[in-house]
Write a structure and sequence with these properties.
13 helices, alpha/beta, Lambda_DNA-bd_dom_sf (chains A, B), DNA-binding (chains A, B), Rossmann fold, 343 residues, six-stranded parallel β-sheet, elongated, homodimer, six-stranded mixed β-sheet
Chain lengths: 343, 343
């Protein structure tokens, strides 16, 4: 049997360094880690993660609970997962992608009962989500990407909707617009109590008021067809609106078609912003839309790091709370309002 | 200490059923599984996956090697992962999402050396990918979503490009088109030796020839700007082209803008097809584009199932090879060619 000492000797490092390199218990320079791994392979040494896990009661495995993709799923949700997996990997952890069934609490009971994972990362967190209370009650360490209405002592990383709305409003106010409309996420594609919709709606209204802009809210189109109808409604009731922020990509498609039917143009007759869409998606529109791009990979990374901090007891204090704003990426759909133009 | 017998008694099932329900060693009706899990929770019984893994030398964990997202990454790649995770979960396995670094072989050496995973699932497989040879040499069970130039004995699930091209060509030929152009994936965003680009190019050319259609290939625009330029080039050299299939979403944006600059319309003057894009993405274009949607989740599911079959030695025969065609979703960009129209 090859011992860890043999591996350390062949790699020319201390036994503690060889152990850290193979077990990921503390950071080791990449070149050193590779040398140790090569020595282990050459000597046929197989560290056994299971035996180690039995000893330490730690598996260094985290589970990301991944809801069944709904129609609105895209790049953002994938980047939560890849960001979390990357951060975990850098810190010597592994990330399980655990699909959620119709009964997430049963699923959690099953998953945490297996003794397989050290902690759980939640995403798509509802305002009244029951998963955090279950996990807290079970004593399973966890963190959230997103947050409930009252996150209490739970660690979370979420979008800073207040800062995002302020940035969006400052952008359109800076161009000289005096009235902003906001199309929120639809209640069909997203649960009515889905946090981002509630928070974005409230924060856009507040930011517009604070900046002295007139504001029109209350629309929630979830398809191209509904987006077009909502736009006709909007300009019928508010012919002086010159700027519109839309949270749903498909609704934006309908808005653009409706603008064209009026014989009008973007951005000359309407400044159009996408909210919570990637610049990649915004670049598929013509013209390329200004967007507020969510910091998805960063939120995934932060969530994993918070959870690992907690597991390693490096943070024993109060809850870790991090809010990151969306990034404003100015496209070709932003311009000053036309003088005296009405719909 | 609560024993498995206690759990079985409380749940009113045989010990072997309780074991199967908690260990996932064979399928158990969902209602029974839930009853056993509830009994286990109530009695404080904790099956230990690690102790079980040590005994059986199996962890029931698979790793999906997930490459660093490149610009072209989207829904398709996410659906490989979620499909694989779902299939694994249904069969009592867990899926690790393992991000790949710059050196995938070192990464694999590290990952498989840990003793953590029973098998590996590869995606984004290059024609001359070196990972399959490494895994075969290491004796680690694996399967591929995609395939190398010569997959040999390896299990794989991939897109059926021949059937996909035939379906696309039959669609445009059925509308009465006589000449089809094809814009392939760009060499910038995809490695030159990326299988889908090579196979799609060859199969579209072959399918067009077999259907008696004139064919124009060789274009590989990877951005909206390049898509527009390629289109100008195309109609300059082939003013009689009436149908175009495009593999890159952003290139399609440029094509649509170029058509508008000519004062022409889709689909009246050009039938435009997206290839390898989801209907969701195709629905963001105006008009909604006809698309050949990849069976991404199905391929992810198939890959995981093949690997698990192999691990459970249910398939000891020759390699498992499954090819699935893209699904033709007809949008508003398909129409018969205009009589005698040229560019």
């Amino acid at each position: 049997m090859t011992s860890l000492r043999d591996v350390a000797e062949r790699a020319g490092v201390a036994v503690s360094t060889a152990s850290a390199a193979l077990n990921g218990t503390r950071p080791v320079a990449a070149a050193t880690r590779r040398r140790v791994e090569r020595a282990a392979t050459e000597l046929g040494y197989r560290p056994n993660v299971l035996a180690r896990g039995l000893q330490s009661k730690r598996t260094r495995i985290l589970a990301l609970l991944f809801p069944a993709p709904r129609s609105g799923f895209g790049l953002t949700e994938m980047q939560f997962a890849t960001g979390a997996a990357e951060a975990a990997s850098e810190l010597g952890y592994h990330l399980l992608l655990s699909p959620e069934s119709a009964d997430p609490i049963e699923e959690l009971r099953h998953l945490t009962g297996l003794g397989l994972v050290d902690g759980v990362l939640l995403m798509e967190v509802g305002l009244d989500d029951e998963r955090p209370a279950f996990l807290a009650g079970s004593g399973v360490p966890f963190a959230m990407i997103g947050r409930t209405r009252e996150p209490g002592e739970t660690d979370y990383a979420d979008i800073d909707f207040a800062a995002t709305a302020r940035d969006a409003v400052a952008h359109v106010a800076g161009l000289g617009h005096r009235k902003l409309a906001f199309f929120n996420l639809s209640e069909d594609t997203h649960a009515a109590r889905y946090g981002p919709a509630i928070r974005a709606g409230a924060e856009f209204e507040r930011a517009a008021r604070e900046a002295g802009l007139a504001y029109v809210g209350g629309y929630r189109p979830g398809s191209a067809e509904d987006g077009g109808k909502a736009f006709e409604d909007l300009v019928g009731a508010h012919p002086d609106v010159t700027a519109l922020a839309v949270m749903d990509d498909h609704a934006a498609v309908g808005v653009i078609a409706a603008v064209a039917r009026h014989g009008r143009r973007i951005p000359e007759d309407l400044t159009l912003l996408l909210v919570l869409s990637s610049a990649r998606v915004a670049g598929m529109f013509h013209p390329r839309l200004t967007t507020l791009e969510p910091p998805s990979a960063e939120l995934g990374r932060l969530g994993a790091r918070m959870l690992i901090d907690r597991l390693q007891e490096e943070s024993q204090g109060g809850p870790q709370r991090r809010l990151l704003p969306c990034r404003l990426v100015v496209g070709d759909s932003s311009a000053p309002p036309r003088e005296g133009g009405t719909w």
